[in-house]
Design goal:
1073 residues; mainly alpha; Serine Threonine Protein Phosphatase 5, Tetratricopeptide repeat; 42% helix; flat; repeat; ANK repeat
């Protein structure tokens, strides 16, 4: 008997012992028969896992082929041997290896209906796109053989993502009627939902799969099935313009006016996408063109958003309301002006719409067009007689908006048509104020050339020069000065532009102002010079500029405070060095006699105190009450400061006018470390007496009555200080001493605590009958020793001490602010007048700041509904400012389809991307991402303008809490950062802050809340309240619904299967004998 044949026979029989005998006796492991079948092939076919494992351990080749190219994996899959398949794949058998006829292991398992093997192969990376030489795929053979479960598995795995669509949904997408029929045979529920909530009929509606749609309806699919957010198949078909499917759905009872959760009907969807035929079909089926979405959008608004003139004309022909408004009173003309669509705007104007219609807060289409720089739309509106001087509730004219946005061409066009260059808002701000505020140099120059007043006065008499100086925009400052602006013009409380520039640290601006003869001596109402401001806010650079131009370093403000006093108070070491270099007097005294060293000592500013002492400051200088810097340091417990002062010659026992020494104050405040410095390190007297006779020990014992011969032990006993009593007794205090009232230390049994009473009773030797004779006279009142009863700086010494407190921390947490946020989020109306008068903004709110809120509200609302608009073909792009492109709007309906809007781009059918391509982002595995977007070029994105609102120096606020701001430059309220209305970025931000600790300068003299109010007012132009609508309508949008599903290239069955020649059976894999 041939030993090789016997080896193959025992391997096929699964006799592991004899297999091992043959191998140990020298039989080759790759021995095969005439057909190329080896021991591994035969054991795999029969499912002998032990033999297979042993052969693989002995390095049998798992990819060895028979004469027909079949591997052990092919044979195991054909036989359905799952465990053997697992062993082979563990040993790296090629899962996609093809035999001579192109058969793969997956094909064989699919042909034989081995469901578990199919699942394992797919999980192991088997490709179902590999076809045989005749073009058959695993899906084709499974369909041919009628294996429903395998078909379902293959269809559901027809994607590369983590989440896979149900098989019926895939068949609906491919319009594969045969597969759908087979799947519905095994599953009679045609309304099966994917994880996204959509049914197969939704998918068929999107892709226009009329055959599968008809089959699903025949099998009982609900034509009015509401998926997530109440989206029906008719919504989807209408949006994508699938007219045959729309007609089929309507024929079978689809509700023509069904609404999504946010009130969008199929007519809204078709109008927004410009599906003229579908719009005509829906109107012919009695669809109502008067229905509105929850935000008030009508189908005419939707057609206008997409510049779909034909659809808009059709709706108007059928009787749509030309001036229909949203809940924010926006008409279709507002929408057209926002998007810059001249054709649809002309259509509306030709039908005599209201050219001056006012939206919420009073914005007209011209305001919106000016904000968006829609020059052609503006020309069209002017031709039809729009009001060029129309004002909003805050008094904002179109010229204000154009100036703020820096649209020079628009501003000149408005001026040519009679706009007033010096028009005022309700807070008396001119367009020049706003152009300066937003840093628009060219716009400011154009306004000045056209007659704008350079010294126009806004609220609190603020001029454009004050605004530019605050921003630090040197170019605009130079422009204003060259145009005749007064450098010494004062606003409220006599602040000049130089005061403002000094405070903000703008050296270049300060230099320009001084070059134009700005006064260094002018003071505020409280006597502060520009140098005082520079010293207070640590602007050493500006201080050098001012000193180099002749500023007096010893100028005295209110209560005699010099710049050096302020620098000492706020620990401004750099400015202090600058002032001292300029010969500032380190011993200058304020009206209460305090020198800068007094202030530094109390504030514990060691470095600054060292600077002053090195410059000759007198450490023994006395205030009007006789207190030296060492007194203040001791009272505050500044041990290091005490040591510094003593080492520089301070008198450790120097007494004030009433005899108080530093040790008295240290004892009074329980400053033990400071007392140790005074007594132990520098030999201070332990028992100095004040003029009233008090020693530090009296003070430490709290209150004493020296005139009535009270000892410290009397005081401590009466005040209940057990620890002090114990320390005094240990130090030898006599408990038997009497005062003038003949009282021992413990004589008041009823007036001292019991624990002290018991302690004294044990050590007192003079016993009286005080337990029986309770003394009834009143307790003798003990007065407090003399202390320091003055402040280093009184509340009125500092600038703005009488100004209102800053509210940097509480504005964002105010209930009113939270209520405002909720209003914006819920899409409710916002009363602009109420907001303008809101207590959330303090008395320095400027009209331009309120204007920002108002305009942002209006624009944000419109942008939240309008999809993504690019410049129309009619728009002259040369009129756009440099670097300016159109705004990318976030639509609730078409949140991410940036390309669908331009009418000039023809509508395309949904296309299937190439394999491996990304569709609408990187997330290609979402279960509800089935729709595919048609590839189009997105329009450019516009960067919008915002004026960043910020408050005072955060570092200063932390150090000087409770100190208010200077007159005329109020403290900024904290600007909330969680506004639901989007902030828009300015074309340029002049002079950003250099210090991270310093907040950005407020682009106005007013407070930060008012500045933020200005920009928000402009940004609100043209807004619709439909924030939540996007969450609904994005579900039928390609980017988030089905666009990210990628179809493999070869998923489609072979040609003869598709064309109907399905009577030709696929070739079967030869059975291994």
């Amino acid at each position: 008997v041939d030993p090789n044949q016997n080896f193959l026979r025992v391997a096929r029989a699964g006799n592991l012992a004899k297999v091992l005998d043959h191998l140990n006796s020298g039989t080759k492991i790759d021995t095969c028969n005439a057909n190329g079948l080896n021991a591994l092939h035969l054991a795999s076919k029969e499912g002998h896992t032990a033999v297979v494992r042993e052969l693989l351990m002995r390095n049998a080749d798992p990819d060895a082929c028979t004469k027909k190219g079949n591997t052990a994996l092919h044979i195991a899959c054909l036989a359905g041997q799952l465990e053997v398949v697992k062993l082979l794949i563990e040993k790296d058998a090629k899962v996609n290896c093809q035999s001579q006829n192109g058969f793969t292991p997956l094909y064989m398992a699919s042909q034989e209906n081995h469901v578990d093997v199919v699942k394992f192969l797919l999980a192991s990376g088997a490709s179902q796109t590999l076809a045989t030489t005749d073009g058959f795929t695993p899906l084709a053979v499974a369909l041919q053989q009628g294996h429903e479960k395998v078909v379902a598995i293959l269809l559901e795995n027809d994607s590369r993502g983590r989440s896979r669509m149900p098989a019926l949904h895939v068949a609906a997408k491919k319009d594969d009627v045969r597969s759908a029929t087979l799947l519905l045979t095994s599953d009679s529920n045609p309304n099966h939902q994917a994880g996204s909530g959509f049914t197969a009929l939704h998918i068929a509606a999107h892709y226009g799969s009329l055959g599968v749609a008809a089959l699903l309806i025949e099998k009982g699919a609900d034509v009015n099935f509401q998926a997530r957010n109440n989206i029906t198949p008719l919504h989807v078909a209408a949006k994508w313009g699938m007219l045959p499917v729309v007609q089929k759905l309507l024929e079978h009872g689809a509700e023509v006016d069904c609404k999504t959760r946010d009130g969008l009907t199929p007519l809204h969807c078709a109008s927004r996408s410009g599906q003229y035929a579908v719009v005509d079909q829906l109107l012919g089926s009695n669809a109502s063109f008067g229905l509105k979405s929850r935000s008030g959008l009508s189908p005419l608004h939707m057609a206008t958003q997409g510049d779909h003139v034909d659809c808009a004309r059709l709706l108007l022909t059928r009787g749509a309301n030309l001036d229909d408004t949203t809940i924010d009173l926006l008409t279709p003309l507002h929408v057209a002006a926002h998007c810059g669509y001249t054709r649809v705007a002309k259509l509306l104007l030709d039908h005599r719409c209201m050219v001056n219609a006012r939206a919420l807060n009073g914005f007209t289409p011209l305001h919106i067009a000016c904000k968006k720089n829609r020059i052609r739309v503006i020309e069209l509106l002017l031709q039809f007689g729009c009001a060029v001087e129309a004002a909003t509730e805050s008094g904002l004219t179109p010229l204000h908006v154009a100036a703020f946005m820096g649209h020079n061409s628009v501003a000149l066009l408005l001026l040519q048509h009679g706009a007033n260059v010096n028009s005022l808002t309700v807070r008396t701000e001119t367009p020049l104020h706003l152009s300066v505020r937003s840093g628009q140099l060219e716009a400011s120059r154009a306004l000045l050339r056209c007659g704008a007043q350079p010294d126009a006065r806004a609220k609190d008499n603020q001029t454009p020069l004050h605004v530019a100086s605050r921003l630090g925009n040197a170019e605009i400052v130079a422009l204003l000065l060259q145009s005749g602006a007064s450098p010494d013009a004062t606003c409220k409380d006599n602040y000049t532009a130089l005061h403002v520039a000094a405070r903000e640290g703008h050296e270049e601006v300060a230099t320009l102002l001084l070059d134009h003869k700005a006064s260094l001596q002018l003071t505020t109402k409280k006597g502060a010079t520009p140098l005082h401001n520079a010293a207070k806010y640590d602007k050493a650079g500006v201080a050098k500029v001012l000193l180099s131009r002749g500023a007096d370093p010893n100028a005295r403000g209110r209560n005699g405070l010099t710049p050096l006093h302020l620098a000492a108070h706020y620990n401004r070491t750099a400015v202090t060095a600058t002032l001292l270099e300029a010969k500032a007097n380190p011993n200058c005294v304020a009206s209460n006699g305090y020198t800068p060293l007094h202030i530094a000592s109390r504030k514990n500013h060691l470095d600054l105190a060292g600077q002053l002492l090195s410059a000759g400051a007198n450490p023994r200088a006395e205030s009007k009450s006789g207190f030296a810097p060492l007194h203040l340091a001791a009272q505050e417990g500044r041990a290091e400061m005490c040591a510094l002062l003593c080492s520089r010659g301070a008198g450790v026992d120097q007494a004030s006018h009433n005899g108080i020494t530093p040790l008295h104050l240290a004892a009074q405040e329980d400053r033990v470390p400071a007392a140790e410095v005074l007594v132990v390190q520098h030999g201070g007297q332990v028992d100095p007496h004040t003029k009233a006779g008090y020693t530090p020990l009296h003070t430490a014992s709290f209150f004493g009555q020296a005139a009535m011969q009270f000892t410290p032990l009397h005081v401590a006993a009466q005040q209940g200080h057990l620890q002090v009593v114990s320390l005094l007794l240990e130090a030898g205090a006599d408990p038997n001493l009497r005062n003038s009232q003949s009282s021992q230390a413990n004589c008041k049994r009823t007036s001292i605590p019991s624990n002290i009473f018991e302690l004294l009773r044990r050590v007192t030797t003079i016993i009286e009958n005080w337990e029986e004779e309770i003394i009834l006279e009143e307790t003798i009142e003990i007065s407090k020793p003399d202390t320091v009863a003055e402040h280093v700086m009184s509340e009125s010494d500092d600038e703005a001490a009488t100004m209102p407190r800053p509210r940097l921390k509480d504005w964002a947490s105010r209930p009113e602010h939270q209520q405002l946020d909720s209003v914006l989020e819920d899409g409710s109306r916002l009363n602009a007048t109420t907001l303008m008068r809101s207590d959330s903004y303090n008395e320095w709110s400027s009209s331009a700041d309120y204007l920002k809120d108002e305009m942002q509200y209006t624009t944000g609302r419109l942008e939240s509904v309008i999809e993504a608009t690019g410049p129309s073909q009619q728009e002259d792009e040369s009129m756009q400012p440099a670097g300016s492109t159109e705004l990318l709007l976030t639509s609730p309906f078409y949140a991410s389809t940036v390309s669908n809007l331009a009418l000039q781009q023809p509508q395309q059918q949904p296309t299937i991307p190439e394999e491996g391509s990304a569709v609408d982002g990187e997330d290609n595995d979402d279960e509800d991402d089935v729709f595919v977007t048609q590839p189009q070029q997105a329009p450019p994105v516009d960067k919008q303008l915002v004026v960043e609102a910020a408050g005072l120096d955060a570092k200063f606020e932390a150090e000087a809490a409770g100190q208010a701001e200077e007159d005329g430059i109020p403290v900024a309220d904290e600007v909330p950062t969680n506004q639901s209305v989007p902030k828009l970025q300015p074309p340029s931000t002049p002079n950003p802050p250099k210090d991270k600790d310093q907040l950005e300068p407020v682009p106005f003299i007013g407070d930060a809340a008012s500045v933020d109010e200005t920009t928000n007012d402009i940004e609100k132009i043209g807004t619709l309240s439909s924030q939540k609508e996007s969450a609904v309508m994005e579900q039928i949008e390609p980017s988030s619904y089905m666009s990210q599903y990628k179809e493999p290239e070869t998923l489609t069955p072979p040609e003869n299967y598709i064309t109907g020649r399905d009577n030709v059976p696929p070739q079967r894999v030869p059975v291994v004998s």
